[in-house]
Amino acid sequence: MSPTITGFDVKDIRFPTHLTGVGTDAMNQDCDYSAAYIALHTSDPALSGYGMTFTIGRGTETVCLAIEQLATRLIGKDTETMFADMGETWTFLMSDSQLRWIGPEKGVIHLATAAVDNALWDMYARTRKKPLWKLVSDFTPEEFVKSTAFRYITDAITPEEALEMLRAKEAGKKEREALVREIGYPAYITSAGWLLYGDDQVARLTKEAIGKGFNHFKMKVGADLEADIRRAKLIRSIVDDPANLAPGKVIDPKSIEGKNAGPTGSVLMMDANQVWDVQESIDNTILLAPTKPWFIEEPTAPDDILGHAAIRKALKPYGVGVATGEHAHNRMIFKQLLQADAIDVCQIDSCRLAGVTEILGVLLMAAKFGVIVCPHAGGVGLCEHALHLSLIDYMCVSGSMERNVLEYATHLHEHFVAPVTLNNNGRYNVPNDPEQGYSTHMKDSAFEEFGFPNGTYWKSAAEGKSNDISL
Ligand SMILES: [Mg+2]
Questions:
Q1: So which residues are the catalytic ones?
Q2: Cα separation of 290 and 304, whole Å?
Q3: Fold for the domain defined by 173-428
Q4: Nearest to 397 by CA among 224, 161, 93
Q5: SS (H, E, C) 158-187
Q6: Per residue in 130-146, pLDDT tens?
């Protein structure tokens, strides 16, 4: 008899990143990187699953309430029965009609579903003593398809087509695994170009990033076009200068193909975080084009599929692509972005889409439409999740990591039991701990300090605030 779900703890945790400018962009200038977190417990005291969804402060308590509603539905469920058909388990999670009403498949309820589905996958991987990417990579094509959410996307990809694609990638899996273990998974850095960082800080962090082996750099744009152009030129002047090249750094020309790379092989990306209208996106990006960005990310509203398509078409003559996805709230948005030829780069988010089950469907669609997947990972815990997803894409779905780059942000990894690490060449090391599941487990010490509102940090902050008021 396998363990059954017996209970859960839901926690609100917030890191005061607004104090440092970390995470700032044209839309979000006071974010506190946060998570709505769940530990799912079973009748086996040694078996729990950990999941989270990423938030940026106020409102996290609302997501926690939704997680409690969803997790309650799992009490008494047999774990092995759920693991045997994760597609069906996901459908069950989505099928409470009263909870569905407050979505459907979007907003708070979908974020909450992500946390619960992530916790189940984490638990599943732990029971098999494999990190999540390895669990899924070892699936047969049939098991993979059974674990995928296909509802509403069969006009773009059918389970039969998916099976064929997955079978075609079975050959070479061993070689791919050996290669990625040896050289790591490619990454890009966002942390040098947060919007509220001053020019000196941007210059210093860009140089540091080059020293760590990065050759893909992302900067935030969209608040002040003149400042954007100035900062883009500043970053270009550093990354294009051969004198700043890391010694021994070799860049495979195929890895920068079609990316507007500079003379040293450096790639610049720009992220506008949804601030512009469609025509503004086109006009402003054309003004930024001489600094040679690979793509403009989230130029406009994340739901505006045809708007993204229009922007992409208009920017094509300028050699600038379009990327989006971190706020694409379900697989149907990705389906339409792909069907409308609206994106060059597919930026799935491990916590915006409702967990691994929904993401597998998006990975399959992106591969079918020939669009590379470069997950969004700027936030607490997102790098930890996204690395598993990129590895699944590489091992089973696209079969390639040549042009892909996975976002890397430097902050808050120390709060995870199994944090991501990078090698000296600016690439992610492959997770290898049989006990690490989906890498979603946060340390108790993190909650003691930053749990909201009763962690030591927030208690003392509240005391400081009340003192101010009394003055
Ligand atoms: Mg972004």
A1: 220, 376
A2: 26
A3: TIM Barrel (3.20.20)
A4: 161
A5: CHHHHHHHHHHCCCCHHHHHHHHHHHCEEE
A6: 999 999 999 999 999 99
The pLDDT-based confidence of 465 (bands split at 50, 70, 90) is low
CATH class of 5-131+444-459: alpha beta
Domain-by-domain residue ranges, the chain? 5-131+444-459, 173-428
Q: DSSP letters of 264-296?
A: TS-EEEEE-TT-S-HHHHHHHHHHHGGG-EEEE
Ligand 1: centre distance to CA 151 (Å): 27
- DSSP run (H or E) holding 11: strand 5-14
Burial of 250 (0-12, 13-18, 19+ CB in 10 A): exposed
Phi–psi pair at 434, nearest 5 degrees: -65, -15
- Alpha-carbon distance of 394 to 379, in angstroms, equals 23
For residue 3, whether the previous peptide bond is cis, meaning omega lies within 30 degrees of 0, is: no
Domain 5-131+444-459 identical in fold to domain 173-428: no
Q: Which helix (H) or strand (E) holds 53?
A: strand 48-55
**Cα–ligand 1 centroid distance for 338 (angstroms):** 18
For 225-272, the pLDDT digits (tens) are 999 999 999 999 999 999 998 777 889 999 999 999 999 999 999 999
What is the sign, positive or negative, of the torsion defined by CA atoms of 387, 389, 390, 394? Answer: positive
Ligand 1 center from residue 263 Cα (angstroms): 26
